[in-house]
Amino acid sequence: MTRNLPVNPATVVMALLLAALTWIYLYSQDTDQSELPVLFQPRIEAKDLALATFTNSAGRELLVPGIPGNEFKVLVTGPKGDVKALRPRTFKCEPIIGPEKVDAPEGFGKVTIVLDRKDFDLPAKFSVDPLPSPNITLRYVKYVTRRIKIVATADMYDGYTAPDHKVVDIAAVPGEIEAKVPADRPEPLMVPAKRIRLEGNKSSFTIPGELEDPLIKPIRAFELRVEIVPEPKLARLTLDLSLSAKPENLGRIDLKDKTIIVELRGPEELVREAEKRPAAFQPYVVVTDTDMEPPGLKSIGTLGCHILDPKFKEIGVVLMADMKPENRQVKIEVKSKP
């Protein structure tokens, strides 16, 4: 007859605890741990990404534009001796970023990526624990197609023109195009063209245009048309000033400023010829009925110049060019009515 021995629960617990401690001891004698740096190099399979940044749970950026990858530390556990032999090799962390992870309808957002063992290229006999945690935050912006307006102005160049020449216009043609644009850019989209380079140019030209922002990619090409013209030649004449007023007022007006400086601007040959014919230009001051009352000394700023020879019509005329516009006035004296 079989006799059942009594079972003491406390003895069973003690036996199990002893077995666990024995396993932990033996395991600790056969395994080792070490912190190792790994290179973060995600494999981004999602298309049309304009920007992607990765930070660990401590807020440290793991991928910087222009740098292949940043290192971060992991805790590696494995057979004793083998762990030490891992150094000085460099291992990589290569999580796959598929399109399903960056599918926010607005085209930008953030998502948490949890790293697991398959993302690391360490041998299978080692366990890997990312530090400070396996959670990585991906912030991303996708490309969308939008219409942009290209900004181009006459001062958007480096270098120099030929002597006595200047840039009067730089224009984008067409001025609006479709482009791939990061989805987080606000509208309206005004995008500067890239500055052009001049090296003694003296005539107008057209070149393929580029955008200053490298993240905006034109779908359609555009051109920059650069207009360069000779600097206008200048000549200054001192001419007699005439009076323009109603006939009945002329006798009461005394011009205190008898002459005025007249600046001529235009093509060199025409300006040089005009210098020799000052009588073709007749500057005047306009005195209205309002200016006649009350009598006394007055400053009048309504000035003009008659060009008597049609040949000189394309010449620009500036009166009192040596003074600020707000100070371009002549003095008159209005006498009392007889």
Description:
- This protein has 338 residues and is mainly beta.
- The chain folds into 3 domains: 31-142, Beta Complex (RNA Polymerase Alpha Subunit, Chain A, domain 2), CATH 2.170.120; 152-230, no CATH class; 233-334, RNA Polymerase Alpha Subunit, Chain A, domain 2.
- Helix content is 10%, strand content 45%.
Give a summary of the structure in a few sentences.
This protein has helices at residues 9-30, 247-250, 268-275, and strands spanning 31-40, 43-44, 49-56, 71-79, 91-93, 96-97, 108-114, 127-130, 135-151, 157-161, 165-173, 176-182, 190-192, 196-201, 205-208, 217-218, 223-230, 233-240, 242-244, 253-255, 259-266, 281-286, 296-300, 303-307, 316-319, 330-334.
Level-2 CATH architecture of the largest domain: Beta Complex
According to DSSP, the number of beta strands is 26
The structure class reads mainly beta
Number of domains: 3
List segments where confidence is low: pLDDT < 50 over at least 5 consecutive residues.
none
Into which percent range does the helicity of residues fall? 10-25%
Distance between the termini: 159 Å
Instruction: Please identify the top-level CATH class of the largest domain.
Output: Mainly Beta
Query: Strand-residue fraction?
Result: over 45%
Describe the main β-sheet briefly. Answer: 6 strands, mixed
Radius of gyration: 42 Å
Our count of helices gives: 3
User: How are helices and strands ordered from N to C?
Assistant: HEEEEEEEEEEEEEEEEEEEHEEHEEEEE
Shape: elongated
The averaged pLDDT comes out at 88
CATH fold naming of the largest domain: RNA Polymerase Alpha Subunit, Chain A, domain 2
